[in-house]
Amino acid sequence: MFVFKKEQQVFDIKGIKIGGHPGQHPTTLIGGLFFPGQPAVRDSKKGDFDSKMALDWISTGKIMVEKTGHPLIIQVYGRTPEAMDHHIRWLVENFEGPIMFESTNLRARLRGIDLCNELGLNERIIYNSINLSTTDEELDAIRDSSLESAVVLGWSPRATSLPEKMDTIKQAIATSEAAGIEKMVIDPATMPVGAGYGLGYRTLIAIKSELGLPTCSGAHNAPSAWKFLRDPYIDCESTYLSSLVASTTAAQLFASDAIMYGSMIRTKQIFTAVSMIANAIATSSAESQRALGETMELFEPPTFE
């Protein structure tokens, strides 16, 4: 298991500790809610959804947190400002943990920032994301807000090697600091299979080794555009799920402190897989600590023996 020479930062976001050495804290899992295509979504523009189904998914998430010890963050998508407003307000009333929000719509993202101020959610909200394409208008809004936490995304079409990735990440970190972000979770930008998938894992290790900052990865991106899964003989939910589990646990083994696993409809399966790998990490980390003469407190996942 990896043991980094660089001191590792740990950020507390609404009671969830993200960062540190592998095995020190449980991997945080980030489930998506209200994304297009989810069966709970009725009208993505208006933010209309099946609240019972969404509540069932949240309930499953809470149960799996209790059973495995792995924290849950819910990532909200808002297609429009109206949808973003509705989704965040509803989730704040029905979930006690941290909330991440994102959108492809600038106005929707700005509405999320405003709502964070209005409702006093600075300790609970994680902005996704700040990157090199973030507009000045958006950065000004973040700077003027009460937001403390954000995902810093290391994506650039020109960043196709590790040195280029790290340069991109450092630029995005500087931008985030200038916008007043205090707690950063660095996402190297997981690409789909065939579009650079794999460099993200290498970058995760570099981030921890060189910067010592908490990391996260969008594991669900890896199988999202993999043509193999569209083969008529292969195409089914079970093969997609197996690929998602593989990309998630790979990110976990490559020292990702938090992992975006996509739709919360797959929460039970993802938490179970991550809990199993957490046992391997715990055993390996404990042995590493003994070999190095370290006494760092480690996460002890349940074995259910």
Describe this structure as you would to a colleague:
- Helix 1 packs parallel to helix 8 (267-292), helix 2 packs parallel to helix 3 and helix 7 runs parallel beside helix 8 (267-292).
- This protein has a single domain, classed as Dihydropteroate synthase-like (TIM Barrel), CATH 3.20.20.
- It is 42% helix and 17% strand.
- It is globular and about 55 Å long.
- The protein has helices spanning 51-68, 81-94, 106-119, 136-143, 162-178, 199-211, 237-253, 267-292; strands at 10-13, 16-19, 28-33, 41-43, 48-49, 72-77, 99-102, 125-130, 149-153, 183-187, 216-217, 258-263.
- The model has no long low-confidence stretch (mean pLDDT 96).
- The longest helix has 26 residues, at 267-292.
- With 305 residues, the protein is α/β, with parallel strands linked by helices.
Global Rg:
19 Å
Strand element count: 12
**What is CATH's topology name?**
TIM Barrel
Principal-axes shape call = globular
Give the DSSP E fraction (strand runs of 2 or more residues). Answer: 15-25%
**Broad CATH class:** Alpha Beta
CATH evolutionary superfamily: Dihydropteroate synthase-like
Domain module count? 1
What is the N-to-C order of secondary-structure elements (H for helix, E for strand)? EEEEEHEHEHEHEHEHEHEH
Gap between N and C termini: 23 Å
CATH A-level architecture: Alpha-Beta Barrel
Tell me about the biggest sheet? 8 strands, parallel
Strand order of the largest sheet: 10-9-8-7-6-3-12-11
Q: SS-based structural class? A: alpha/beta
- Helix fraction by DSSP (H/I, runs of at least 4): 40-55%
Question: Any low-confidence stretches, pLDDT <50, length ≥5?
Answer: none
How confident overall, as mean pLDDT?
Answer: 96
Number of helices: 8
